[in-house]
Amino acid sequence: MVWQVTKTWGHDVGLSCAFRQHRADSHCSKIHGYALAISVTFEADELDERGWVIDFGGLKGLKQTVVDTFDHKTVLAIDDPALWPLRSIAESAGVVDIVTLPMVGCEAFAHHVWRLADQWLHETSQNGRVRVASTKVAEHGANSAEYRP
Predict the structure, then answer these.
(1) Under CATH, which architecture does the 3-147 domain have?
(2) Which residues contact 72 (CB under 8 A, 6 or more apart)?
């Protein structure tokens, strides 16, 4: 039997993130933003001594990593041609907090959140019992992406 639980930081949390997909042929090539909703589903083959997959109260460190990556940030792909001009503005005027990732968009963000959660699990004392089953990132009710390894 596999047990699964999901922790969600919803749109109401206010993870205000701006980004652009510089490869897009649509308006998505322009900087735009959303209050992202992020969900992480953990799984385990057996429950712990408390009857839990994971202690939701112990996820504060993971939440902080997610906040540091997406909240009030402008996320750009490392190969975005606008990265260096925007970074120059950010450094000189201090009006943009830029985070770079290999790729941007819901799919890329869901994969990145999975990596963050997986790394967090390895850094905490979960003894390999708990796994990250999937992650989901939603721009709004109509657009979301899920990553499952």
Answers:
(1) 2-Layer Sandwich (3.30)
(2) 16, 17, 97
The structure tokens listed for 108 are 């890329």
Which run of H or E residues covers position 61?
helix 60-70
Strands (E), 15-72: 15-19, 32-44
pTM of the model: 0.94
Question: Residue 126 carries which side chain, given as an amino acid letter?
Answer: Q
List the chain pLDDT tens, one digit each, 149 residues.
999 999 999 999 989 999 999 999 999 999 999 999 999 999 999 999 999 999 999 999 999 999 999 999 999 999 999 999 999 988 888 899 999 999 999 999 999 999 999 999 999 876 689 999 999 999 999 999 999 99
| φ, ψ for residue 130, nearest 5 deg | -105, 140
